[in-house]
Amino acid sequence: xxxxxxxxxxxxxxxxxxxxxxxxxxxxxxxxxxxxxxxxxxxxxxxxxxxxxxxxxxxxxxxxxxxxxxxxxxxxxxxxxxxxxxxxxxxxxxxxxxxxxxxxxxxxxxxxxxxxxxxxxxxxxxxxxxxxx
Length: 133
Known about the structure:
This protein is mostly helical. It folds into 2 domains: 95 residues, no CATH class; 35 residues, no CATH class. The protein is 82% helix and 0% strand. It is built from 5 helices and no strands.
């Protein structure tokens, strides 16, 4: 049975280092494979070649990919983040424009302009829309 006295501090530190390095390695592989598969500037055979290179010679393949594509990986990640932010901003603007008191007042104004409601009904709808919830 292994007890704490039989497992020196430096062995604990070495085990923690190995575990940390293993986690970093897995993260690096996931990052590289995800970058390979989401690239649009290369074809399938090029992607397959990079995947085989990384799987057959892992350390050399990862280092070569980072050396050749590291800057481009960062540019693609920044572009993806900018696209996601743009989509989110558009969604928020659409939701804000199509809901809330301003949208209700605009709908009521459209009804007033078309003659479907009277000025008194418009004022009532406007007051109701501006009332706190």
